[in-house]
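User: My collaborator sent over this chain with a note saying "see what the structure looks like." That's all I know about it. Can you take a look?
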Amino acid sequence: MDPDEGTQADTSTGATVPTSSTRAAQFTTPQQLEASRECERQVDLYGKGATTRSKAAVAIAACLYQPNLEMSERNITDALDSYFRMLDEIDERNEEVGRGRREKRKERDVMGGASNGRRGESARKHSPAPRTASVAPSRSDRRGRSSGTTSTTMSSDSSESESSDSSPSTKRTKPDTSIYAWADDRRSLEHGLRIELRKSLRLLRAYGVDIKTAKHDLLNSVAAPEFPDAEWNNVLRGRAVDLDHVFSGQYSLGRDEKRVEKIGTVEISHKALVPSKTVLNSGDWVIAFQRTTEAISYAFPHRRPELEAYGRHILSLFGALAPTLQQRVIEYDRAVRRRTAAKRDLLLTDIDHFADLKTQYIDSGGANVCGEETKIGKSSGNNARASRRQEEPCRRWNNGVCPSQASKCRYRHVCLSCAGTHTVTQCVKAPARQA
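Assistant: Without extra context I'll predict from the sequence alone. Here is the result:
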């Protein structure tokens, strides 16, 4: 939508808002018109200083992304651009007003200083000459007054300079994303994405404007599902969720808040909750993934069919493997979700794109599987040696000097000769010892 056509000035905010004719070109149904009015209300609130830009942007995006609006991709994008331009105009107007106020204040200070100087000079001219009998100020007094005057002047100049240099601008410089190296190919590549991926990208960018505000609004919504606080950040940023953390939160009674400790000028933040449980089998995975599905679907409603289909895929793998091998499926799932979170052109249901991960984590010849079997082989060898050592008779017990009880001794308290419950000195089968 062209900002110069089909818009009118808002006298309260100074920004241009869409006229009824322009609104009708994009918003036709009653639901769309209501969404348009809500977007204009957010712009008006921002212009009056009743809300922040980030909150207004998130609210506008939420209005336009409602599934019942049935708006086309182009109309949503055009409407977003139009309303964001209005916010930019308000920022520019506020910046001009702030700049004008600073210039007037500086000019007033300069004029005030000159006027005070002229009044002082006039007073000195018309004041009577000092009497010769009056006591002249000492050298130290003159030096003190001169130093005080100089320091006062320098402090005033420094304060004015700092005020003009460090006064925060009302508008943060907006980066020029068109010069990014990937900007040329982004539009063409995004145009070819599936509709589910485009919806996810739009919501991720909307939440990314201010993650803190988006999360605060989400947690205070009535229908928000129960979910670990730290993992909501991963959901809103499109990152892979830690199922161990989700599963642990199911049983933990501790708080899931980030604690901040200060050491001098350094702040150290850490999670108060350390996962006390981990996903070890298919039952644990189902509990954690169902909670994750509800959380992701709340922030990205269009992803529910994808998550449910992926859950069925993982369950089929659990059913195809022996219970002792379920950990392989859990590691495969973790790798798949990590890859999908790193690439914005993949869905969890794109199983063909994860064939290498299936080989690596599940198949018998996979790199991770072979490495784990090597560790298990070494561990079993050590256990076998330990078992053999424990089966051996205790020589100290046979000699009557073992300090441990039979239940705590590393070796068996049996006869060295016949494995009976007596010592070798009492064994009748033992060969006679030579004197």
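A starting point for your reply to your collaborator: The two ends are 113 Å apart (CA to CA).
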